[in-house]
Amino acid sequence: MRDRVADNNYVKLVHSASLMATLVALLLLIIKSAAYWLTGAVSILASQVDSLMDIGMSLVNVFAVRYALRPPDNEHRFGHGKVEPIAGLVQAGFIGGTGIILFYTGVGSLWSPKPLTSTSVGIIVMIISTVATALLVGYQMYVVKKTNNQVIHADSLHYCIDILMNLAVIVALVLDRWGWSWADGAFTIAIAAYVLHSAWRIGFDAFQHLLDRELDDSTKAAIREIALGVDGVAGLHDMRTRQAGQIKFIQFHIELADDLSLINAHSISMQVEHKLQARWPEADVIIHLDPLSIVEQEVKSGYHF
Question: Where is this chain's protein located in or outside the cell (predicted)?
Answer without folding.
Answer: Cell membrane
